[in-house]
């Protein structure tokens, strides 16, 4: 058994943990990071990067087929083997040498093994060889262990060994028929990807498709999925699942109907990776989400600061926003605030302060890489009304912009801005259409910056681009 002391100990070396460690080092403190799997975490190997690699080839092919001249040059369908090979490269072939090397370069010691909190500010790392190393933190322990796929308690489901997002993303073969339980982001993106790769896809979307987005967004995606051959069953719920002797999967729905497929993907949500990290040793509940304040310090059920504030939780484990970019945003705030507190410097924890994650509340950007793409930031109209805001909703047909007609023949899309009428600022923005992901950051700046509507008139969109939709929305608002 070895013992080492650092200013900060981080459990979990995904993008969140890496960013916490980097900010701590930049602030002049020492930090160690613990990882039981691959440095780089879920995003690098089983989520953001490889999933978008799976989707991109199909999107590029569809885009070419929507432009006369390019359409005639396209012959054949996707080369599935080439797509999977490209996917493998973006997952670094599931090796973390490069990211582990980066930690070494920035001066962050990596402890490979399973990290568990054994007492206040103490983490024990169990290596695969049976060794145990004790890490003691002078100032803080940060939990950034992420989340895993949630598998519901459906009769026979676990015994049928379904795919989760990990198996779907890393598969070496495209099944002839893929069934998907779920209608959220992962379900919608994987339905898009596998349909493009030639699979027959059935979606069982009990709560609808992309139910957290503006309703029109889900409608666009459902229409497109069905046009691509995906069988979308809205309101369908699995009652039981069975893996047959020949390896197929049979799903019996609550209405008695049956769906048979070669593989089944379960994509209905996430669960925190906190089951076995020693929370019980310090009086917290194993397997639970960790509640935090705006500086990501763990608080108890009563909202009071846990212990004396040495424990932080950043990323998925705090359930504020389960998105990589928001986790990294939290990580930057966490690293900086730990340094500030360690050095007795001023902590800027007011709204939009340097040491808080204010954006988590009402300015979260997200892109869903379906066909068409969905890009949104801030509140939906329903969420804004629920928050008690007096709003005005303005919609515009993206196909009516000059830029869209140049980008694709038969372009279909829609934009919506939600305006807080009392402050005259945009609090929500949604775009649906081909290639809209790259339009999102302008909306994010408008929402975060709380730019007055009157000032936005002076932000002139270049012609002829799809961004001209900003002018059209403002014109419609001004009527």
From TrEMBL:
Keywords: FAD, Flavoprotein, NAD. Signal peptide: none annotated. InterPro entries: Class-I_Pyr_Nuc-Dis_Oxidored, FAD/NAD-bd_sf, FAD/NAD-binding_dom, FAD/NAD-linked_Rdtase_dimer_sf, Pyr_nuc-diS_OxRdtase, Pyr_nucl-diS_OxRdtase_dimer. Residues 364-470 form the Pyridine nucleotide-disulphide oxidoreductase dimerisation domain. Residues 6-328 form the FAD/NAD(P)-binding domain. Pfam families: Pyr_redox_2 (PF07992), Pyr_redox_dim (PF02852). Its cofactor is FAD. Belongs to the class-I pyridine nucleotide-disulfide oxidoreductase family. This is NAD(P)/FAD-dependent oxidoreductase.
């Amino acid at each position: 058994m070895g013992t080492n002391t650092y200013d900060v100990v981080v459990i979990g070396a995904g993008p969140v943990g890496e960013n916490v460690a980097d900010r701590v080092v930049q602030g002049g403190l020492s930090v160690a990071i613990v990882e039981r799997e691959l440095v780089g975490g879920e995003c690098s190997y089983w989520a953001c990067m490889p999933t978008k690699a799976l989707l991109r080839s199909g999107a590029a092919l569809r885009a070419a087929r929507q432009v006369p001249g390019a359409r005639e040059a396209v012959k054949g369908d996707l080369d599935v083997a080439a797509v999977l090979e490209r996917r493998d490269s973006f997952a670094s072939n599931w090796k973390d040498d490069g990211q582990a090397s980066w930690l070494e370069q920035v001066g962050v010691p990596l402890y490979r093994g399973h990290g568990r909190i054994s007492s206040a500010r103490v983490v024990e790392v169990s290596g695969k060889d049976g060794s145990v190393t004790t890490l003691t933190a002078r100032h803080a322990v940060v939990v950034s262990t992420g989340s895993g796929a949630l598998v519901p308690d459906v009769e026979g489901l676990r015994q049928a060994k379904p795919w989760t997002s990990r198996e779907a993303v890393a598969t070496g073969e495209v099944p002839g028929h893929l069934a998907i339980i779920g209608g959220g982001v992962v379900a919608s993106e994987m339905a898009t990807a596998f349909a493009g790769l030639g699979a027959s896809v059935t979606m069982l979307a009990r709560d609808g498709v992309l139910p957290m987005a503006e309703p029109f967004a889900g409608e666009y995606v459902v229409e497109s999925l069905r046009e691509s051959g995906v069988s979308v069953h809205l309101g369908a719920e699995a009652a039981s699942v069975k893996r047959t002797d020949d390896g197929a999967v049979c799903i019996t729905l609550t209405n008695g109907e049956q769906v048979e497929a070669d593989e089944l993907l379960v994509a209905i949500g996430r669960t925190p990776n906190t089951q076995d990290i020693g929370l019980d040793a310090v009086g917290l509940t194993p397997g639970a989400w960790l509640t935090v304040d705006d500086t990501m310090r763990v608080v108890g059920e009563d909202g009071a600061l846990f212990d004396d504030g040495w424990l932080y939780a950043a990323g998925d484990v705090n359930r504020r926003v389960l998105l990589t970019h928001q986790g990294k945003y939290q990580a930057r705030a966490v690293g900086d605030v730990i340094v500030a507190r360690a050095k007795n410097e001023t902590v800027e924890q007011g709204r939009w302060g340097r040491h808080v994650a204010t954006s988590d509340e009402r300015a979260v950007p997200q892109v869903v890489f379906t066909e068409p793409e969905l890009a949104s930031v801030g509140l939906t109209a329903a969420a804004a009304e629920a928050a008690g805001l007096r709003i005005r909703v303005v919609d515009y047909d993206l196909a009516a912009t000059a830029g869209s007609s140049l980008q694709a023949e038969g372009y279909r899309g829609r934009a919506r801005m939600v305006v807080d009428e009392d402050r005259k600022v945009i609090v929500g923005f949604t775009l649906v259409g081909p290639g809209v992901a790259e339009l999102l950051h302008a909306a994010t700046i408008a929402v975060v910056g709380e730019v007055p509507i009157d000032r936005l008139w002076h932000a002139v969109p270049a012609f002829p681009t799809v961004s001209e939709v900003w002018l059209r929305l403002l014109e419609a608002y001004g009527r």
